[in-house]
Amino acid sequence: MFHFQEKNLTVFQSSLYKTTSAVVHSEEAIIMTDPTWLPEEIAEIQSHIQEHLGDKQLYIIYTHSDFDHVIGSGAFPEATVIASEGFQNNPKKEEVLEEMNAFDQEYYIERNYEPRYPTIDRVISADGEKLELGDMTLTFYQAPGHTNDGLFTVIEPCGIFLSGDYLSDVEFPFIESGYHDYKETVEKASWIMQHHDLNTHVPGHGNVTKQKQEIMDRIDFSKQYLNRLLDDGTGLEKECRNRFRFFEGMKNSHLENVERASKEVNERK
Ligand SMILES: [Zn+2]
């Protein structure tokens, strides 16, 4: 459902996990992230795109390959698709499809398109790769740690940072592919803030912010969280419970993070 609109940015936020689909309008193109989740929500995004597309090209950036972020891909067959090399070479494409189908089976969901794993037109394989689209420049950075195929996108000159499942204001970091990778990716986010002029942040789950300080705070919280995972029982869980309204629902991911972090650190010793 509709979440945010200002100038050339419109953001839809699903009722499920506050998952976002960002839509950026440039002179030549419409650029969208992760169309998701429910049929009515995807239909709302489709009609927004139809209303504004005209003779512009539609681009979809997939921020990573978790099934909830690609479940809407079949609804936009005309789009030019951008994702990381890891996304393209994902050895678990079949599993992603199975997860989409299992979700629709569980909740009796009918879609008027065939769920599928996206086919990529533009594969991003290096940090700092650029794509010029008329008045806008997109710069991409690899973002492993949550999954190993994550992608950050910076859009200038409008100063938008699309971070996928990092730097959320409604979730602590979910470490699914690597603790050390995750730490480096958060450091990369700091570097990006220093080297690009950014004023708007759209996380993959949660709320848009227009405050630069809020973006920095989100980065700082992730850094602290990752470091404090290694201290035992210093109140991190309590702090997360206070900070995140839906902590009870995601508590297991926190406990898995604690285990994963100490395991990875011990392996490096
Ligand atoms: Zn997600």
The mean pLDDT is: 96
The number of distinct structural domains comes to 1
Terminal Cα span: 47 Å
Residue ranges: pLDDT <50 for 5 or more in a row? Answer: none
Strand order of the largest sheet: 1-2-3-4-5-6-7
Determine Rg (CA atoms, Å).
18 Å
Instruction: Sum up the overall morphology in one term.
Output: globular
Name of the CATH superfamily: Ribonuclease Z/Hydroxyacylglutathione hydrolase-like
The largest β sheet comes out as: 7 strands, mixed
Features:
269 residues, alpha/beta, five-stranded mixed sheet, seven-stranded mixed sheet, Metallo-beta-lactamase, Chain A, globular, 8 helices
What do you see in this structure?
- By secondary structure, this protein is α/β, with parallel strands linked by helices.
- The chain has one domain: Ribonuclease Z/Hydroxyacylglutathione hydrolase-like (Metallo-beta-lactamase, Chain A).
- It is built from eight helices and twelve strands.
- The strands form two sheets. The protein has a seven-stranded mixed sheet with strand order 1-2-3-4-5-6-7. A five-stranded mixed sheet has the order 8-9-10-11-12.
- Strand 10 and strand 11 form a beta hairpin.
- The site of zinc ion has 6 residues, from helix 2.
